[in-house]
Amino acid sequence: xxxxxxxxxxxxxxxxxxxxxxxxxxxxxxxxxxxxxxxxxxxxxxxxxxxxxxxxxxxxxxxxxxxxxxxxxxxxxxxxxxxxxxxxxxxxxxxxxxxxxxxxxxxxxxxxxxxxxx
Length: 118
Hints:
It holds the Pfam family ArsC. By secondary structure, the protein is of the alpha+beta class.
């Protein structure tokens, strides 16, 4: 299992605490220091069953600079979104947990974190 975190994020710290409390075996990826490639993002999105705009943090300053809120949210625009997330990893929602069984979740709640432990 791998968890993508920003150590300054309280939701990430909570997810790590829960994984530790449950004795989970996982690796940490500080995705701002080790950003995912576009291909990695595509794989994670497929596992999540989401589109890039679904995991974009539109409240970030860089999102406003890019005008992300006005970007089209349709299949034809997917590449543009993936490029933006790969170039600006701060835009990626966190924490993202990829489980060994092929599932993935955005672990913002204890319930979502626990769902990859079952």
